[in-house]
Design brief:
Blueprint (H helix, E strand, L loop, with lengths): L1 E3 L5 H11 L3 E4 L3 E2 L1 H13 L3 H4 L5 E4 L1 E3 L2 E2 L1 E2 L9 H4 L4 H17 L4 E2 L29 H17 L3 E7 L29 H9 L3 E4 L18 H10 L5 E3 L13 H10 L13 H14 L1 H20 L6
Parallel strand pairs: 1-2, 2-4, 3-7, 4-8, 8-9, 9-10, 10-11
Antiparallel strand pairs: 5-6
GO molecular function: beta-N-acetylhexosaminidase activity
Catalytic activity: Hydrolysis of terminal non-reducing N-acetyl-D-hexosamine residues in N-acetyl-beta-D-hexosaminides
InterPro entries: GH (IPR017853), Glyco_hydro_3_AS (IPR019800), Glyco_hydro_3_N (IPR001764), Glyco_hydro_3_N_sf (IPR036962), NagZ_Beta-hexosaminidase (IPR050226)
């Protein structure tokens, strides 16, 4: 899944779909007005030809959380309040609010919302939590409250047939650093396999979430050696095993500073080997290195080839559930 901003040359994006067989995109910043977004979505889906993607339509995603995180703005898009404010709404109102977000995304040709945030930020940390608390991206300070809100948002988006993404597993509410811009302060020394903060993720899964996004932080009690997107103990063990998640797992941005010490191709390989499915990068220039590394590893390692096939089947199953595939 490659990121494109509103000022990116369309021909460059087309080349990644046609030449590199990229099957999914995410809208980053610079997108203003429903007409522009809808026209771009229509154009992108037309590039999903039999030669490019086997005729399989694209997942087109956006971060449409609310507050400081709303990538699609302007005419046709409601100016959304923050998740913190959504957390104070009555449940029915919150679900309806999410359904409205979903309907607007659908009208723009966007079929995946990279929301809701299931991270719980303890009140003792609050805005010192740089990735979530600073921007009011959390629904509350208690995992049961967050879980209820996550359930409402997942169900509301589902009413509009927009895939909901629960993030950032297993949680970045206790860290202080923002993995997008630093590799410091990104370790949660408390998180365990029985942590109550996992409740909000479980609630999202039970509510019918379509994807789970990994965090890029570290959790030494779960895996001392590997960051979350590279950890089979966290993805295959905790998420797929203990929590029973059988759906699509997507990375957070693999262009983040927190993972910059790992070469792009290795990031992709390690993620899939750990049980992941969709590698998301806000830097399309890394795409070819990632694809080459995945292809080479799949050709030389039978077990890894099976991981690739399983990832492919999960993504195709999601697209089929969303009505993107016709058989």
């Amino acid at each position: 899944m490659i990121g494109i901003d509103g000022n990116a040359p369309q021909t460059a994006v087309d080349s990644y779909i046609a030449g590199d067989h990229v099957g999914n995109v995410i809208y980053l910043g610079g997108w203003t007005g429903m007409p522009k977004v809808a026209a771009t979505s229509h154009h992108l889906q037309r590039q999903a030809t039999s030669a490019a993607t086997g005729g399989v339509p694209l997942l087109i995603a956006a971060d449409q959380e609310g507050g400081a995180v709303q990538q699609l703005k302007g005419a046709g898009f409601t100016r959304l309040v923050s998740a913190r404010d959504q957390g104070t709404m009555p449940a029915a109102q919150r679900e309806s609010y999410a359904a409205t977000i979903g309907a607007q995304l659908r009208s723009a040709g966007v079929n995946v919302n990279l929301a809701p945030v299931a991270d719980t930020v303890p009140a003792s940390i609050g805005t010192a939590n740089q990735p979530i608390g600073r921007y009011g991206r959390e629904y509350g300070n208690d995992p049961s409250v967050v879980g209820t809100a996550v359930t409402d948002v997942v169900q509301g988006l589902g009413r509009a047939n927009v895939a909901a993404t629960v993030k950032h597993f297993p949680g970045i509410g206790r860290i202080t650093g923002n993995t997008d811009i630093t590799s410091s302060g990104i370790s949660d020394a408390v998180m365990s396999a029985n942590d109550p903060y996992l409740q909000a993720f479980s609630a999202g899964i039970k509510a019918g979430a379509d994807l789970v996004m990994m965090s890029s932080a570290r959790y030494p009690k779960l895996d001392q050696a590997n960051q979350a997107p590279f950890s089979s103990a966290i993805i295959d063990g905790l998420l797929r095993g203990k929590l029973g998640w059988q759906g699509v797992v997507v990375t957070d941005d693999m262009n983040a500073v927190a993972v910059a010490g790992t070469p792009p191709g290795e990031r992709a390989v390690r993620f899939v080997a750990a049980g992941g499915d969709i590698v998301l990068t806000g830097r399309p220039a890394d795409t070819r290195a990632m694809i080459s590394a995945l292809t080479a590893r799949g050709a030389s390692d039978k077990a890894f080839a099976q991981k690739l096939q399983a990832a492919e089947q999960r993504v195709l199953a999601l697209k089929e559930r969303m009505g993107l595939l016709t058989c």
